[in-house]
């Protein structure tokens, strides 16, 4: 099975989030210390480590972002044009 799928199932977090961790080089082969790719196929006996995982366990990651009012310039059923200043 692919590395991103295995870690997503193990940690019960989204596969997309795991893929971001992998792309940043935070997931490594513990035997070699080298970062792994999300397409890596896991084998029996593989040992992988996730660097700085406690950084994402913090409750602040779960706090909702503040409500930001952005003016909608045009809206249809298919798209919306929103003005967002720099």
Percent of residues in beta strands? Answer: 15-25%
Q: Quick one: how many beta strands? A: 4
Q: Helix share of residues?
A: 10-25%
Number of helices: 2
The spatial strand order of the largest sheet comes to 1-2
**Level-1 CATH class name:** Alpha Beta
Oligomer: single chain
**Which CATH architecture?**
Roll
- What fold name goes in the CATH topology slot? Structural Genomics Hypothetical 15.5 Kd Protein In mrcA-pckA Intergenic Region, Chain A
Can you walk through the features of this model?
The chain has helices at residues 3-11, 15-23; strands at 27-29, 48-50, 72-75, 80-82. The chain has a two-stranded antiparallel ribbon with strand order 1-2. It has a single domain, classed as Roll (Structural Genomics Hypothetical 15.5 Kd Protein In mrcA-pckA Intergenic Region, Chain A). It starts with a helix and ends with a strand. It is elongated. With 86 residues, it is α+β, with helices and mostly antiparallel strands.
Protein topology:
Elements: H1 3-11, H2 15-23, E1 27-29, E2 48-50, E3 72-75, E4 80-82
Antiparallel strand pairs: 1-2, 3-4
Helix pairs in contact: 1-2
């Amino acid at each position: 099975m692919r590395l991103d799928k295995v870690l997503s199932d193990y940690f019960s977090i989204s596969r997309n989030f795991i893929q971001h961790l992998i792309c940043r080089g935070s997931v490594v082969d513990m035997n070699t210390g080298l970062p792994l790719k999300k397409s890596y196929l896991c084998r029996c006996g593989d040992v992988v480590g996730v660097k700085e995982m406690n950084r994402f366990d913090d409750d602040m990651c779960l706090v909702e972002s503040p409500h930001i009012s952005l003016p909608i310039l045009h809206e249809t059923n298919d798209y919306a044009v929103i003005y967002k200043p720099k």
